[in-house]
Amino acid sequence: MAYNVEYEDRKDYLYAHITGNESYQNAITFFHNLKEKMEKENWDAALIVDEVKGILNTNATYELSREIAELHRGRIIAFVDPKEETFSQNYFGGTVVANRGVVTQVFKTEEAAIKWLGEILNKNKRR
Known about the structure:
The chain has about 130 residues and is α/β, with parallel strands linked by helices. It has one domain: 2-Layer Sandwich (Transcription Regulator spoIIAA), CATH 3.30.750. It is built from 4 helices and 5 strands. It has helices spanning about 25-40, 60-70, 85-100, 110-125; strands at about 5-10, 15-20, 45-55, 75-80, 105. It has a 5-stranded mixed β-sheet, sandwiched between helices. A hairpin with a 4-residue loop joins strand 1 and strand 2. The chain is globular. The model has no long low-confidence stretch (mean pLDDT about 95).
């Protein structure tokens, strides 16, 4: 079963709230669908709130992160994982994605992610 995803237009970025059960395939499907939606609707930035249940192992996280980087290179993604048991794994994945050309950071709170995203988007507007 795929993630449940709720999208919201937040003016400067696309908001996506994901729930459901964690699996490599669910995550790949979500990030492919996110790419299609961002391209179709002309979004450069997204804020993702991850409230899925379960955890991927380190190898799966690494492979998933490499795929995310390929799909979203050049975009800006703030990723929120409020769950203590999965935060460090997602933080590792965020580092892999960032090292491959996506402007991204992983946060514990939505408020911190919104602040960071606003700063990044404002900096890019001034260029």
